[in-house]
Amino acid sequence: MDKYNSFIFDTFDFDQKSGKVELKYSLDDTVRFLETVEFLGDYQPVSLTILDRAFLALHLIGGISYFKTACPPNIQVQSGELNADHAAFWNRVYHKGLGEFCFQNKIDPTTLASFTATEVTPLLDIERPKNAGSVLVPIGGGKDSIVTIELLKKAGKDVTLMRMNEHPLVTELIEATGLPSISLERTLSQRLFELNKQGALNGHVPITAYVSCLSVVTALLYGFESIAMSNERSANEGNIEKDGQMVNHQWSKSWEFENLFSEYIKSYITTDLNYFSLLRHLSEFAITKYFATLPEYFTKVTSCNRNWKISREDTSERWCCECPKCAFSFCMYSAFLPLDTLVEIFGKNLYSETSLRILYRELLGLEGMKPFDCVGTAEEVQAAFILAHKRGDLDSTPIMQMFLEEVLPTIKDPDKVVSAALEPSSEHGIPEEFLSVLHANN
Q: Is 160 a residue whose pLDDT tops 50?
């Protein structure tokens, strides 16, 4: 892979007739990338000034996939202006959002190129058309967004779903909710895949940050008042500390990112759009407890990230039953669902799979590090094993035996571990009008 001096955010362009956005980037004006996003259906006439603010954010976050191919020492933004706070936000997103990528590629994240500030004209707040009380909920196929959706439906909220790119599993899940949805088609630059084949740097990017920026554009185009994400407090915990910096696979799902991005929206895009996670105060463990009351979705959701790989051809299986996310999800479900239901969902009993022994030891905090995947804390995993053990139908499995022999004897008060995992946190950005939704379902 060649060396480059600068990564350039060239231009973005929105064709109002076709609903297509073109995001253009380059390495030293020689290697060019074109990413497109198509907004399907009818949208509202919105001030182009507001839209440009949102499209700039989408342009900047979209560039992270192409920047990482070479990590050149300089960044040039030609598609908009950034003040000091604006630039500081994007530096945080790139440096922390690429934390895992840097760890895996042995790069010091503090040496990554930085966004620089320019003099900008203060933003004037502009009114936009919106439907009072309308809520946009991004849906990805997992249980968390379903819990958000069902809580909002119970409260009688006006909910519309947003999904990025067609996928048969997500289509089936959306149909099961009975709610209207908006589909967006994102097409990555083909040049990216060519560079990857040539040995370009590759690795994890903060996809939730991208979805968040995309949801803001969608909310503006279609007139939504609020965006309700489904990110839980478990995402706040990192995976490993490196050179005094915490590396967190889920950083763009964390409270830190949510808080920063919510302020960014109000300061640099529009003041009348709520962005928050309805599940921020809850652990994965607590979310699963609520999901266990929704049997109509048991065999329709999937949290296995292998389903969303661009190159994946087989989309019929919901769970690979091999990855950290599958192992973790089975564990969470095992706390609240009997063995026959678990097998119906996953196709097998994962606690009987000795090949997953090391993975479960990592999830329990017995050895190694927390896997680089969207998994919860070791305390939640222990809580799930405790409840599954109390039910007893998994006790004879090798994975449960490992827990009973090596972990349970070290836990002084098992009930306290469970109650702590279920206890909601006070740290969240949920607007007052939505807190009643949660209180009604406690």
A: yes
pTM: 0.95
In CATH terms, the fold of domain 6-120+129-277 is: Rossmann fold (3.40.50)
Question: Is residue 313 over pLDDT 60?
Answer: no
Nearest 5°: phi and psi at 43? -130, 170
Amino acid at 171: T
Provide the mean pLDDT of the chain: 94
Q: How far is CA 131 from CA 220, 229, 269, 299, in A?
A: 11, 19, 18, 34
Distances 255 to 209, 235, 269, 277, 337 between C-alpha atoms, Å: 12, 8, 20, 9, 29
Q: How far apart are CA 212 and CA 217, in angstroms?
A: 9
Domain boundaries, the chain: 6-120+129-277, 284-422
Indicate the helix (H) or strand (E) that contains 196. Answer: helix 190-197
């990857």: which residue's tokens? 196
Is 406 a residue whose pLDDT tops 90? yes
